[in-house]
Request: fold
Amino acid sequence: MKARVPAAGPVRGGVERRRAGPGEVAPASPRVSQAYDRGLERRDRERRLLRPLGWAFIAIVVTASLQIQPAPGLTGLRLVISLVLVLEVAAVLAATSSLASRGERTQLAVIAVLGGCGVALAALQPHGAVALAATMAVWIAAVRLPPVPAAVTAAAITVALAVTIALTVQPAAQAVLAVTLLMVLLAVTGQFIRRGRESQDHTELLLAQLEDARQAEAVAAALAERARIAGELHDVLAHALSGLAIQLQGARKLAAREQVSSALLASIERSGHLAREGLAEARQAVGALRGDRLPGLDQLGQLVEDFRRDTGAVTFIRVEGDSRPIATDADLALFRGVQEALTNSARYARGAVVEVRLRYGASNTVLTVEDHSPPAPSGGSQLSDQELFEHCGDGHGLQSMRERAQRVGGSARAGPTADGWRVEIEVPS
Reply:
């Protein structure tokens, strides 16, 4: 699940969400998401710590209510007091549970019930400590709600309680003043707690964003350095190998025209092949340094199609099992192996039907390239490894396949079949 950066406007105790554009929330980095989650965990921890205080508050309110006349009961006014007291207890329990974390509207509803019941108890049971039942609503509003809703809610509860006390208690001035001062003190204390928590949340988010910025700067510097090295490598090595390949091609044509020995011609051919292979590897290394995407099995269909178009050979591809992504190095090893096998088929099995099979197993992925040509004369013997190398060009192609496969924990095999030649590469999934 993709985490999201906290966005404009206070959410869940002051953590804010940053918008990336109109109507769009920016995806968070793992570090920023962790900072945001720590803020939410602190909210949950504070709510758990508040539960014992809630139970103590319930005990005080219920005890005070039972000691005042009229006391809670089951008839008339006493029944009304009992119902209000039950609602007060339920609201306190809701305020100290996970229900209060479900949004600002839910919290406002809980605080309104808590404050309303507190004011009702003060009206139904005057002349007692039960008048303090509404104080918890003011404190929770100050701690959990944004400044404006918190101020409006606290002011409404304070005014309602002060008016109730003024109408039910004589003389009322001292009691009204005491309750008002207590409410103001709780509201101010709650806002200080809220702002301190918001400050900690924002500090952690800013530190996380700063670390992200530093990491992005380091990555950008590394990419710039890699691009510089890639440029130097291309200018020095790739250009030199290109020149060498051209010179060797000219030497091969000259040697063929001069009718030199077959050994010398084979040596020139091998040198040209090595130069071309080195040039291809150098270009691949330059591309990797520049961050270019390396080829893989997703380009296998295009590779086979290009081979069919360039050679005119009957070529088909078959995929067995459910396709799934594999490691980048293994993906590249399979692709390069198919490239080499198709090249050898074009050079040594012209006119053959070429079959490319890709099989996704439970724990491995196997890629087979097999060419089917007319049966060879009987009487042949099993070829040695050296002879297998020679059939695969100069041997370096198969050796390169094996080395690539072995680096990723796999293997590569090649050998004759009843009607052709098969190359098989296996890598772990």
In short: The radius of gyration is 40 Å. The chain has three domains: 19-212, 221-289, 297-375+382-428. Residues 107 and 213 are 36 Å apart (CA to CA). The chain is about 65% helix and 10% strand.
